[in-house]
Every structure is written in C-alpha cells, then in structure tokens.
C-alpha cells in the first residue's frame, strides 16, 4: 500500500498532528526537516478518512504527498504493536515461521474509544484471520490481549474488532463487532434487547466515550455505530460562516443518532434542538452525551420515526427552525417531505436551511446531476418554495468514487 507523508508548513500544529496520528497508530518515526518544513511519515493511504480529517482541520498548514518509502515494511516501520506481538509469541515458544505469518496478518490500525481499543479489519490484516484465530485459541496465548492492554493501552479494558456497517440496516447498527477481550454486553442480545431495551440492558453494556471538537459523545459499541469520518461536517456546523444563525434559533435533526450533529448545534448555542431517532440505544447515548456536555440549549429527544415530527413540534410554542439536518446514508430522501412541512409550518423567516446527506457518485457530483435531482425532488414536493443550493460539501469517501456529501439548500417563500 502506498502511504503518504504530511508536509507541515506551520510547526505550531506539529504536536497535534502527531498526537492524532498516534491515536490511529499511523505515526512513523522520525519527523524530518525539509526546506523549512517538517515531514511527518504515516501509515495512511492517500484516500484514508484520517487524511481527509487532517486536511479539513489543518488544510492551510499541511500538504500531502506520497511517501518515498512506500511499500517499505522493514525494521523502521515496526511499531509497538508488532514488537509486542513478536516478543509475546517468542516468549511462548512460537516457531519463528509462525510468528512471521502472524505479523503479516496483524492489524495495524485501531481507534481508541474509551474503554475499548477497536481494531480495523482488512482482508489480510485482522485478528479474525485464520492464523490469528488459531494462535489465540491456544491456551499458551490466552493472555495475549490482556497483556497487550496492560503494556500498550493501560487505560483501556476491552479489545474488539470492527467490520463495515451492512447496507441493509436503516438503523445502521454495528452487527459485526467482535469482542476479543472483555465483555461488551453482559447477556444475550435478543430482539427485545435491541428494540426495547430496559434500564438493566443499558447497564449491561459498555459505553464508549470520545471527545471531538471539545464535544463529548457517548454510545454503546454493540448497538450503535460511530463514524469518526463525520468530524469534518461536525466542524463545519461549529463554523459560524458555514452554518449561519444557529445561535438562539431552533434546529431539527431528523436522523439524530447519538447526536453527531445535534451536539454541534447545541455547542453553537442553538436555543432548542428537536431530535428524532429510531434506535433506542442511540437515543440513550444521545441523552448521556447531552448530560455530559451541559450545553445551555434544550435538547428534545423523540425515540420514534421522524414521521411524527409535526405532531411533536405542535406541542411547542414560538418555533423558529433555522436548520434541518437530514443525516441518513445512503440517502435521506425519506425525510424531504417532513423537512419541508417543518419549514412551512415552523421555519425561521426568511430562510430555513436543509442539510441533506447522501452518498453520491463522483460523476453525479461533477455533472451537477445530483444537485439538479435534489432541487427537482424538493420542488416536486412543495412548489411554493424557492430552493437555492448554498453549498455542496464533500465530507468523506464512502467507496471508490462515491462521496458522502452534504447539500446545504436554502428554502425561502416565493414572493
Ligand atoms: C447515519 S445514522 C446517524 C447519524 C447520526 N447523525 C448520529 O449521530 O449517529 C442515521 C440514523 O437515522 C436513524 N433513522 C433512520 N430512519 C429514521 C427515521 N425514519 N426516523 C428517525 N430516525 C431514523 C437511524 O437509526 C440512525 O441512527
């Protein structure tokens, strides 16, 4: 895999960038100097979402280029995890050839979601590879994960490995998380537990916690997905030049999840955010996040389909909905009619902005086809409004040539 190097032109950000790479186990020593810039080697591919995230965060202070050492898997690249695995296996008397095979299939990337170390998977590099399954099933290796936690991640108690979210689940739940150390949920995961969890069920789960952009987010890794790639869009909500008039106004999040976007609106001092979310585990995470963050604004959480939004909003006075978030992938088409009803009945004057998320093929972005289709679809639902594309944001790549995009569409009354 060709990896990239980061040319850091503003050294004030060097430490933060290094720390972020270390969190992803993607930092490669040493940092070099070149023409007054710092060169930071990484284990990241060019299209990695962490590269996107860094560029969105430090764009002006950063350039990306392909590494000269692409493909070098020599001693230099060996990281702490490989070293730990090698020594552990050697001490257990594992034959050298077997160790070599295991190191070839060792996952190199992980996310730190307190208290869980969550490993990434690729076909070749995963703890779910047959070689690792065999090795870990041997009694001599039973303590591998525990010792790894103790030596490399002393603040963490659980190890798990993730696989991509399946396409067919509208609640986008992490069906493929596999626990490797520690119990993520004490009990049997019956449909009742998924769909109507009790307080005991909530207590039986591990709850992960991360802070992004100074915002606490909480979720159960067994029942709710967490995508760190959305950080770019979360940051955009925090930017008053991108999302205007959030302060003191109301917002509606039609697919609220654990509050990826809701919490950013609240940080921006939205007066009230109205959240609709089907998954009870996500609403529980959202409520826990709201408690931890202690923002001033109110967060009203409805654990039900957004189809009920009009009845719910009718119970509130003096609504002034300035932003409506439609954050469902691969498409939030289902929410268009509801968003427009809200804009019509409760929209802020003179404009309400819709933030429409969708996975779009690059050809449909460049040809403008997706924008045309979306504006036409909205016009078909409520022709009495004027729809203007204010911005198209490419958030992250979802698949080759497919981008998770957000369209900001200003909705105003026709005069
Ligand atoms: C992309 S995910 C969530 C992203 C979200 N913003 C977050 O913080 O997790 C979309 C969410 O929409 C929810 N959802 C899907 N259809 C829905 C509907 N008709 N009404 C309310 N929520 C819905 C899913 O359960 C899922 O949590």
Automatic annotation (TrEMBL):
Main location per the UniProt record: cytoplasm
Name of the protein in question: tRNA wybutosine-synthesizing protein 2
SUPFAM superfamilies linked to this entry: S-adenosyl-L-methionine-dependent methyltransferases (SSF53335)
Pfam hit, one: TRM5-TYW2_MTfase
Keyword tRNA processing: yes
Residue intervals of the SAM-dependent methyltransferase TRM5/TYW2-type domain: 150-413
Family according to the record: Belongs to the class I-like SAM-binding methyltransferase superfamily. TRM5/TYW2 family.
Source organism of this protein record: Lachancea meyersii CBS 8951
Keyword set, alphabetical order: Cytoplasm, S-adenosyl-L-methionine, Transferase, tRNA processing
Alphabetized InterPro entries for the sequence: MeTrfase_TRM5/TYW2, SAM-dependent_MTases_sf, TRM5-TYW2-like_MTfase, tRNA_wybutosine_synth_prot_2
Function comment: S-adenosyl-L-methionine-dependent transferase that acts as a component of the wybutosine biosynthesis pathway. Wybutosine is a hyper modified guanosine with a tricyclic base found at the 3'-position adjacent to the anticodon of eukaryotic phenylalanine tRNA.
GO cellular component: cytoplasm
Compartments where located: Cytoplasm
Statement: the UniProt record of this protein carries the keyword Transferase: yes
Record Gene3D superfamilies: Vaccinia Virus protein VP39
Reaction(s) this enzyme catalyzes, per UniProt: 4-demethylwyosine(37) in tRNA(Phe) + S-adenosyl-L-methionine = 4-demethyl-7-[(3S)-3-amino-3-carboxypropyl]wyosine(37) in tRNA(Phe) + S-methyl-5'-thioadenosine + H(+)
PANTHER family: TRNA METHYLTRANSFERASE, TRNA WYBUTOSINE-SYNTHESIZING PROTEIN 2 HOMOLOG
GO biological process, one term: tRNA methylation
Domain of life: Eukaryota
Pathway where this protein functions: tRNA modification; wybutosine-tRNA(Phe) biosynthesis
GO MF annotation: an example: tRNA 4-demethylwyosine alpha-amino-alpha-carboxypropyltransferase activity
